[in-house]
Amino acid sequence: MRGVLWEQSGALREQEGVLWEHSGALRKQKRVIWEQSGALREQEGVLWEQSGALREQEGVLWEQSGALREQEGVLWEQRGALREQKGVLWKQRGLLRDQEVVQQKQGGVLQKQEGVLQKAEGVLWAMGTGR
Q1: Which among 106, 123, 95, 49 is positioned nearest to 87, based on CA atoms?
Q2: What's the pTM value of the predicted model, to 2 decimals?
Q3: Distance of CA 99 to CAs 85, 89, 103, 107, 108, Å?
Q4: Are 124 and 130 spatial neighbours (Cβ–Cβ below 8 Å)?
Q5: What single string gives the DSSP state of each residue in 65-117?
Q6: What are all long-range contacts of 9-15, with beta carbons under 8 Å and residues at least 24 apart?
Q7: CA distances (Å), 68 to each of 4, 82, 106, in order?
Q8: Domain ranges for the chain
Q9: How many whole angstroms separate alpha carbon 97 and alpha carbon 90?
Q10: Is 128 strand, coil or helix?
């Protein structure tokens, strides 16, 4: 009986050894999984850093596009000021034309007055009272 018990205890020790091997293999698999999950967390960190850099670049682009829109607004204001100056110049040109017309009319009036004076002088001459 002792021999049978000894054999059974040997078989149990053998099973225990197999279980120890299995648990060692499981611990190795667990360590591999931990290493893989660590690598995945590291990749996730890299992706977060890259997405942060992309968001930062997006912010820079927004700032640049805002500056461009601001410059465009300044150009529109300058263009409007130039159109306003052009309008003032057109008005001044119109006033000069009006003044020229007035001067021409005044010249015509002076010519008419000179003609009247010449006629009066001719009448006086004809009457013998002229010079």
Answers
A1: 95
A2: 0.44
A3: 21, 15, 6, 12, 14
A4: yes
A5: HHHHHHHHHHHHHHHHHHHHHHHHHHHHHHHHHHHHHHHHHHHHHHHHHHHHH
A6: none
A7: 94, 21, 56
A8: 56-131
A9: 10
A10: coil
pLDDT digits (tens, 9 = 90+) for 42-58: 999 999 999 999 999 99
Instruction: Give the tokens for residue 102.
Output: 């007035």
Give the end-to-end CA distance of the chain in Å, rounded to a whole number: 182
| CA pair distance 67, 95, nearest whole angstrom | 42
- d(CA 68, CA 62) in angstroms, rounded, equals 10
The residue to which tokens 């008005």 are assigned: 91
| pLDDT 10s digits, 73-123 | 999 999 999 999 999 999 999 999 999 999 999 999 999 999 998 998 988
Residues in the chain, overall count = 131
